[in-house]
Amino acid sequence: MIGDFQLPRFPMVKKWYTCPHCGKNLLIYDNTAKCCGIYIRCRQCKRTVEVRI
After folding, report:
1. Would strands 38-41 and 48-51 be described as parallel, antiparallel, or unpaired?
2. Which of 53, 43, 52 is nearest to 21 (CA)?
3. In angstroms, rounded to a whole number, what is the distance separating the alpha carbons of residues 24 and 10?
4. For residue 31, what are the contacts with CB-CB under 8 A and spacing of at least 6?
5. What share of the chain is helix, strand, coil (3-state, %, to 5)?
6. Is residue 35 part of a domain?
7. Partners of 41 in beta bridges
8. How far is CA 19 from CA 3, 5, 10, 11, 50, in A?
9. Which residues of the chain carry a pLDDT beneath 70?
10. In this structure, are strands 38-41 and 25-30 parallel, antiparallel, or unpaired?
11. What is the pLDDT of residue 2?
């Protein structure tokens, strides 16, 4: 069946993941990224942020 086959998604758009507290850019991700349970410390406000994409 042709309808069950999925083509792989290619990265087309890159975006910045920003700190929800101060708005500083933390990391770059693309439209194929999937992430949860990753923690990054913001350099500006010194808070730990969980990355959910």
Report:
1. antiparallel
2. 43
3. 27
4. 9, 11, 12, 13, 15
5. 0, 35, 65
6. yes
7. 48
8. 40, 37, 26, 23, 9
9. 1-3, 5
10. unpaired
11. 61
28 inside domain: yes
Does residue 1 lie in a domain region?
Answer: no
Q: For residue 4, what is the DSSP state?
A: T
Q: What's the number of domains the chain is made of?
A: 1
Q: Tell me the residue range of the domain where 33 lies.
A: 14-51
Owner of token pair 């101060």: 22
Residues in a beta bridge with 48: 41
Specify if 6 maps to a domain: no
Q: What is the pTM of this model?
A: 0.74
DSSP state at residue 5: -
